[in-house]
Amino acid sequence: EGKELGRGHIRRFESHMATQAVRQLELERDLRRALLEGQFRLVYQPQIALNTTELIGFEALIRWRHPERGEISPNDFIPFAEQTGIICRIGEWALDCAIWQIKTWHEAGLALVPVSVNVSALQLAQPLFAATVIARLDALPAYLRNQIALELTESTLMHEQALSSVHQLTAAEIPIFMDDFGTGYSNLSTISQLALSKLKFDRSLIQNVGNDASHQRVCRALLDLADALELEVIAEGVETLEEAQWLAEQGVLYAQGYWFSHPLESAAAIAYLKRL
Ligand code: C2E
Ligand code: MG
Ligand code: MG
Ligand code: MG
């Protein structure tokens, strides 16, 4: 009877593995289809000047409305898209979409702010990535060319090719934001050698700085580090007035988070541009 049970376990285990494999194949097929059928869109989260609460930029964040499964969070498909390599095509789509969006806003007579587009490690590791982006942006009219920034995370910088991509992009004066700063492997000497534009302090560093002394000390120390690196800071994931006030008192210039605004559908983002 024990053997029976054992075999049953193995069968269940194998069928679980098979289900996993099938799910992955389905997800990969669905991601390809999503690109072809226009199921992705970008939403735009305001980046705010802390002292005036004025809009200084938008972060473009991808959204996927799956025809059967509904909205799927980027956290649930971007890592998989990276494993399969399809992230490179998704990333191209996101850059094109952001450019198209800024152009549309401009043609509607709206004032513009820079839009930052997230770039994945795999994209940055492609030898032709930087040259392709630079060529794409250089082909645009100046008003558009200067409104695109790129966000990348610290962990993307572990390879030589990625560093070389960043050097090429910054040499072409494309603003680069270091995303999720404070969560990953930080090679500070590398960061100090790159002509980065801004450091985005991860939400985990910002959480509770409104009322927790030890969080405040850690955040203050990293703000001093940002000062030493002569980099401006955007605080990510600001959710409360207390956090916003403490950050403003510390001299942080910019913030992004639910306290100011959730990511907005493009139609809603227009209201922000109209106030500029
Ligand atoms: P991220 O680039 O660090 O983006 C910030 C994330 O924090 C977004 O999640 C945003 O909606 C969320 N957020 C903003 N303010 C708050 C807040 O006050 N509280 C909390 N709890 N969350 C806040 P989202 O849109 O789900 O995106 C998750 C991640 O997926 C992004 O993190 C980024 O790493 C990745 N991602 C999104 N769009 C793209 C894309 O077009 N390309 C690539 N490669 N990655 C993307
Ligand atoms: Mg980002
Ligand atoms: Mg981030
Ligand atoms: Mg993140």
From TrEMBL:
Please report the name of this protein according to its UniProt entry. EAL domain-containing protein
The EAL domain sits at 24-276
From what superkingdom does this record's organism come? Bacteria
